[in-house]
């Protein structure tokens, strides 16, 4: 506050960066500094959520990165949307998929999983959105063509 009242200039945001303690993050490859690329990290991507709770939790992060969040809780006319370029299907958390969904919804999720497998794609976990933002890249994270267990 003193820099504001004394007109000595704005404080340096770099002085307030947290230490990276996450064990799954390569600390030499990421930064909490402002990176303009993060504003459109998900540009041209469609994030398909299979339940409303997950959609409500994650849609803002997708929108802030320039992506399009879509809630698709039931069978859609065209399964091809699930595998088209730029589409990312979010993995339901196991307890949400089995306990909080109707049988029809569970069948829809199983259908989507099988359809993605048939097209050699996989669902994306929620954490990958954060990792993509941290790394400023969707090459490894939020990429349904990359096996998340191989990096």
UniProtKB/TrEMBL annotation:
GO terms for molecular function: damaged DNA binding. Pfam families: NIBRIN_BRCT_II. GO terms for biological process: double-strand break repair via homologous recombination; mitotic G2 DNA damage checkpoint signaling. Residues 36-144 form the Nibrin second BRCT domain. GO terms for cellular component: Mre11 complex. This is NBN.
């Amino acid at each position: 506050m003193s820099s504001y009242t004394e007109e000595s200039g704005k404080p340096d945001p770099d002085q307030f960066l947290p230490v990276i303690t996450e064990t799954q993050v390569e600390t030499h490859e990421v930064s909490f500094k402002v990176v303009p690329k993060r504003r459109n990290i998900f540009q041209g991507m469609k994030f398909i959520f299979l339940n409303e709770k997950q959609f409500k939790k994650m849609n803002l992060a997708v929108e802030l990165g320039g992506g399009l969040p879509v809630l698709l809780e039931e069978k859609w006319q065209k399964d091809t949307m699930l595998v088209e370029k730029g589409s990312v299907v979010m993995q339901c958390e196991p307890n949400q998929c089995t306990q909080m969904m109707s049988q029809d919804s569970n069948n829809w999720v199983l259908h989507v999983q099988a359809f993605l497998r048939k097209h050699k794609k996989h669902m994306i976990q929620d954490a990958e959105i954060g990792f993509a933002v941290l790394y400023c890249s969707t090459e490894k994270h939020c990429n349904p063509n990359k096996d998340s267990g191989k990096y």
